[in-house]
Amino acid sequence: MDQIKSKTGNLSQSRREFVERAGMTAVMSAFGLAFFTSCSDSEDQTPGTPPNPTPPPTSSNGVTVSGNNIRIDLASQAGLAAAGGWLLIINAQTLVVNVGGSYFAMTSVCTHSACDRNWTFTNSKFTCTCHGSEFDTSGNVLKGPATLALKSYATALSGTTLSVTK
Ligand code: FES
C-alpha cells in the first residue's frame, strides 16, 4: 500500500511537474518567438550581407549627386553660372568654378590635412582656411603647407546642365 501511495504520490508529482514544465516551455517559446520576430524586423538584413556601399542620389538646389556623377542645373545656380562664380558641394566633396564660361571641378579634400569644407575663393584662387593653403582654378598649389595639387574632375556642359564626373 505504501508502494501504491508512493507511486500515486510520484505519479501525482510527475503530472504536476509535467504541467509546470509544459507551461514554462510554452512561455519560453512565446518569448523566444517574440524576440526572434523583433530581431528580424529591426535588422532587416541577411547576416553577412555588407551594407549598401552606394549612397542614394541626393538633390538640392539644382545639384544632384549620384555616385561619382554630379549634375548641376545652372538655371538654379546663378552664382556658379556667372563668370568667377564657384560652388562647394559638400556631400560630393567637390569644388566647381566658372572661369570665363569654362567650368573646372576638383576635389574639395585638401591635400594638406584633408579638410574638405573650409574653402574661400577670391582673386581666382581657392584658399583652404584650415591652414591657409592656396590653389589655382585647376587645383595646382599656389601656396603651402599643401604640396600636392587637388585632383581634377572632368566637366561637360550641355545647355544649362553641367555634369561633373569624379
Ligand atoms: S588642410 Fe588645407 S591647408 Fe591644411
List the helices and strands and how they pair.
Layout lengths: L1 H42 L14 E3 L2 E4 L2 E5 L4 H4 L4 E4 L4 E6 L2 E6 L11 E4 L2 E4 L4 E3 L5 E3 L8 E7 L2 E5 L1
Antiparallel strand pairs: 1-2, 2-3, 3-12, 4-5, 5-6, 6-11, 7-8, 8-9, 9-10, 11-12
This protein binds FE2/S2 (inorganic) cluster (FES).
GO cellular component, one term: membrane
Keywords: 2Fe-2S, Disulfide bond, Iron, Iron-sulfur, Metal-binding
InterPro entries: Rieske_2Fe-2S (IPR017941), Rieske_2Fe-2S_sf (IPR036922), Rieske_Fe-S_prot (IPR014349), Rieske_Fe-S_prot_C (IPR005805)
Task: Explain what this protein looks like in three dimensions.
This is Rieske (2Fe-2S) protein. It holds the Pfam family Rieske. GO terms for molecular function: 2 iron, 2 sulfur cluster binding; metal ion binding. There is one protein chain. The protein has two domains: 1-51; 58-165, Rieske Iron-sulfur Protein (3-layer Sandwich). Helices cover 28% and strands 33% of the residues. The chain has helices at residues 2-43, 78-81, and strands at 58-60, 63-66, 69-73, 86-89, 94-99, 102-107, 119-122, 125-128, 133-135, 141-143, 152-158, 161-165. The longest helix has 42 residues, at 2-43. The chain is globular, with a radius of gyration of 33 Å. The termini are far apart. The structure holds FE2/S2 (inorganic) cluster.
The level of helicity is 25-40%
Number of strands: 12
Rg (C-alpha, Å): 33 Å
The coarse overall form would be globular
Level-1 CATH class name of the largest domain? Mainly Beta
Structural class: alpha+beta
State the end-to-end distance: 93 Å
Q: Bound small molecules, which ones?
A: FE2/S2 (inorganic) cluster
Instruction: Tell me the major beta sheet.
Output: 8 strands, antiparallel
CATH architecture of the largest domain: 3-layer Sandwich
**CATH fold naming of the largest domain:** Rieske Iron-sulfur Protein
Could you give the order of strands across the largest sheet? 1-2-3-12-11-6-5-4
Low-confidence stretches: 1-9, 22-46
CATH superfamily of the largest domain: Rieske [2Fe-2S] iron-sulphur domain
Q: Which strand-content bin applies to the residues? A: 25-35%
Order of helices and strands: HEEEHEEEEEEEEE
